[in-house]
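pasting for ref
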Amino acid sequence: MIELLNIDCMAYMATLPDKSFDLAVVDPPYGVGSVTYMPHRRESAFGGAIDHYNVMIATLDMNQRPNMKHDVCNTHNTKTTLAHFGDTNMAPPPEYFKELFRVSKHQVIFGGNYFLLPPTRCFLVWRKTNVPEKFSMAMCEYIWTSFNANAKSIDLSSLSVAQGQRFHPTQKPAKLYSWIYGLFCNPGDRVLDTHLGSGSSAIAAHDARLDFVGCEIDAEYYNAAKARVESHTAQHVLEVHHLTPPQQKDLPL
C-alpha cells in the first residue's frame, strides 16, 4: 500500500508506536543555511569582496534560530527573500531525529554529513555522473545508514527523471531509491519517508512491493507528487493488463 499524507511529519510520527516501520528513508533539508548558519559581514578588497563568517551549528542551539535566519549568507537572494531564507531550508531539530529513530528499526538519511549522527560503517555514496568536477553542484552525495555493513556506492545521473516530471529543487531519481530498497528491504516491508518531496521514493516503493507512507508538509509539492505517483501506478496497471497470462501471474497487481 502506498499512502501519501499532506502533514507535518513530526505530527504524524507522534501518533506512531515504537518501531512502526522497518526502514525510514529520508531526505530532510540540509542546504546552506540549514544546519550551519553563516551570519556574515562583507568588505571590499582586492577589487572584489571578502565575506566574514561566524559559523554555528544550528541544531545545538534551537533558541537562536529565529534571530539568525535573516542573516544567512546567500548572495543570490535579495533583502526581501533573504529575510525568509531558511523557512524551507531549515534543518530538522534534534527532536526530529529522536522520533525518526524511535518509529523505525533502521534509517537511511540523505545528507548525513550535515547532521549530528553517530559514525557508520555502511555509508552510501551517490556519484552524479552528469556533474563535472568544477561545476557548482556537488559531484556526489553522502547518505548515512544505520546498517552494520560495508560502504556502497552507485553511479547515476541526477537528470534521470522523465521529461516534465521535475518540479522539486532536490528531486532525486526513482532509480536511486530502487537501489536503496534493493539493498535493505524485502517485499512487504514498511517504509517511511518524512520528506516526500517529488514522490520518487513512493514510486520506487510501489515497484518494489513495499508498504509505504510518505509525509509532505508543503501542499503544492504534495499535490504534484501525488499526481506523479498516481500516474505511475496507473501506467503500471495498464502495462500488466497488456501482458500475456504467463508473464502477468508473476507480477504484483
